[in-house]
Amino acid sequence: MREINGIDNINAYHSGSRSVVSGGLCGFGCSHHSSTPVKTRLSATRRGILRLGMSGAAAAGLAACSTNRATGQSTLTGFSSLEDDKKIGAQQHPELVKSFGGEYTDPPLNAYVQNLGERLAQHAEYQEFTYRFTIVNSWIINAFALPGGYCYVSRGLIALASSEAELAGVMAHEIGHVNARHTAQRIAQSQIAQGLLLGAVLLTGQNSIGDVGGQIANSVLKSFSREQELEADSLGIRYMSSAGYDPEAMVGFLDTLRDHSIVQAEQRGLPASTVDESNINATHPRTIERVQRAEALAGQYAKAGQITNRDPYLDQINGILYGDDPKQGLVRGTEFLHPTLRIRFQVPDGFNITNSEQAVVAEKPNVKAAIVFDGAKRKTGDVFSYLTQEWGKGAAIGDLARIDINGHQAATGALRLKGQDYRIVAIQGEGNQIYRFRFISDPSVTASLNTPFRETTYSFRFLSAKEAALIDPFRMIIVPITPKDSIASLSSGYPEGNFSQAYFRVMNDLKAETKLPKTGKAKVVIGGPKIS
Question: What is the mean pLDDT of residues 199-219?
Fold first, then answer.
């Protein structure tokens, strides 16, 4: 958690919502492609329609097509030029990097990724772009791209990959999005959607269809389509094989991504099959389909002498941060510690903690309940007036009380919102800083969680400077496998508790039924908070 100014709505987060614990863009490992709206020139289109009285269909005809060098196809790109791509990328780059924890600072690794990307980009069709490759300091397994040559991989994805060829496949996929100009296509589709919407309003005089139009435009900007993702896979395999890498590595990494998703699903109490489910709002191709398609393409581009570079890659990532950066807080089992804010608390057994940018969220598999922790700044008064007059303003809060939490003033209350029970707690920090808990539960389980939620409340305490200094990060290091090693011993440093062995297997490309090799190298985790 980096933000300490939380959302001032008590029900901003709700039980069962995966949106509060996930995020990111797409391509490799997630469900969105851009959380940052791309600026378009829709106003000019609107003015033209109003001035000429054009219909939505005529507006659609305004969007220009062009032949894409990478795909060889005539694609709808509206009025967006290559210069527009560069401008959009340059404008959005700082905000996007900031939203993903900033850049990961490791000069040798940064240079390694940039050099790898440049070698791949030499085989791209659009050499007008200056390609820039950035590692974002996020543990979410992710990679994404902005128009104009801006490509990104997360620290978590770099740790998950096990060879240079695997990382090359990911980066080549993102170069594929840039060269297929998928964002330009989305902007053009958005222009059409807005044009059709306005045309319908002019013809019918009905504003009620606005919600439908908004949904269309939002879905266009939300994610790349199934076909675009598969197209980026195809281009990525072309680029990486041209650069001399074994295209089978992309197949293997897609399979590893699927295994990682399965472990995450099981950790949350979801069926493993959910990683391959799709519906009308999930436009990305199922992971298993991407594996199958990539397998077929890899066979076409396979050549003698193509490289994987596993050992050099493992040497390069030796010592990378594992899990959250301490500057954003660390999760250790059921405990959350933040050395910068100098706070700690513990959630009940069985709850899994996810540390996002704005909040810490804990959920228990198959239980309709959640704990949300964040921070805010009070404007006036004390912590009690903050809870009743600022955070809970206008809400029917009952069971109000002033309480003491390990020597610090706090206030609490209870209410029901949208059919869910809420126990809210505000804790006074330094100055006007407030720390907040939302304990959210379905009424059917509230009584059984009263004691565990209370224990979490009173587990909160502030750390001394000496204690905060003991909160070291987890790091992933590469060690040789010896005959004495076992999966249990090598996974002992992983911080995922009962799922540590499962994460060790995923990180080391070991299927559930695969035995530990007698030789070779393994990714293990060391370090972590020394505080007891």
Answer: 37
